[in-house]
Amino acid sequence: MPLIDFRHLAKAGVYALAGLRRGWRENAFRHEALMLPVIIVLLLCIRPGYGWSAAAIVAWLLVMALELLNSAIEEAFDLITTEQNEHVKFGKDMASGAIFLGLAANAVLWVCMLGSVL
Q: What is the pTM of this model?
């Protein structure tokens, strides 16, 4: 077995891109993806330093990742049942809560970053 299995990496890349394409069909993910260039422009304007900039970009990418996971969870639950089920609702609500916490973490990061720069 080779040290690096390039066929496996290529397949994983194809699957990842398919997931991103599917995520693009979700409004929330699309909005979050479109915020990334806005965040980058803001960082270029305020110039908080490489560490803060990297943290802000990574934190936003994590929100986007949480959104993809939330959508995947919703898709999976919808396959399980289309009927109203409180446990399915709890699962979907918890996944949405994870996104909220990611957004809150971004808000804290930006308040700290702006407080140190301004």
A: 0.91
